[in-house]
Model the fold of this input.
Amino acid sequence: MLPHRHPRITLLRDWLLLAAALGLIGQWIVLHGLLHLPLGPVAETVLPGLAIFGAATLLSWAAELAQLEISQALALAFLALVAVLPEYAVDMYLAWKAARDPSYIAFAAANMTGANRLLIGLGWSTVLFASWFVSRKPVVHVEPKQRLELLTLLLATVYAFLLPLKRSLSLIDTAVLLALFIVYIRKASQGGVEEPGLAGPPERMALLPRSWRRAVTILLFVLPAYAIWLSAEPFANGLLHNARRLGIEEFILIQWLAPLASESPEFIVAIIFALRGNPTAGLGTLISSKVNQWTLLVGMLPLVYSISGGHVMPMALDARQSEEIFLTAAQSLLALVILANLNFGMGEAVLLISLFLLQFVFPAPAIRMWLAVGYLAIAAGYLFSPTFRASFRALLREGWRRQKP
Done:
């Protein structure tokens, strides 16, 4: 169990965390937005990256507070957008640039696939490991109501397998994935209302008088959004510049370092839930984030690309980008099959993180294709089990029926 902390120590810690997050975005707003100071190549990458991390943290807290102010249907739609905003900003910038410089198509695809694979390969397993550390329970249960998220992910994943076949991302994909996202939000809004379980800085801010709390909530949305707007371009360009300077493949840095900056706050929140004895909430948070990224984020890429180019045109995918999407879809399918029975065990967590790490041990494209086939083969093996087949049928049958908490 975690050691008991004195209330004053906890209070001080929470306000220090808020001050630290504000400091992370404040330094970039001052240096870049107000003073326009010239910085070295390392600082031009690290400082906006820290600002994105701080902004993502503040947005997650603001999203929790917003649940106290707006209707649940609106909150669900709004929170879904907020959850992907930091990752969205970087990837949308890359898609915008890609219309003028086709080499950026690869970077947009790299950032999108890296973010999606991080959530499952690293995030889901880490939640279980953190939970086991404090409780010694080798399993995390998923709430039945999250069959909606799992079915949405399944439909998006099945559709994603078409993208490598047609070698492009087009406005048709935008229409399909955004429609799926909208249906998901509509179905989610039909569930019962739950009081948000606030902890940390949001818990402190929730105690403010209502007028002050509303003002703070708005401020916690506006400041991070402005910081992300200031940070996305220099952060992405800084990564590319430093990759060239250091002789590192640009694709790799964009695929993994950029998502790490924007995904880390979500990981931290999920781990904190697990350490506090609520791993179901932690895993549920990452499952919802995966839905947002696999539908809304992917669907917006060709739309931004066409707007930037000034006319309707698909984003052409080369062989490597197609392979990355295929691998990402294969990983998603295995994860969904594993969670179909609403239990996530230690062996399955080790399996997902081991397969995720293999891509760094064997980075060759040919090996990655075999890794994707391995994901699919293991998923098929699960489906041969009568128990998992029954769970999978229940997922298909019950997914659209939003269960009340």
About this structure: Strands lie at 139-141, 168-169, 315-316, 343-345. The mean pLDDT is 85.
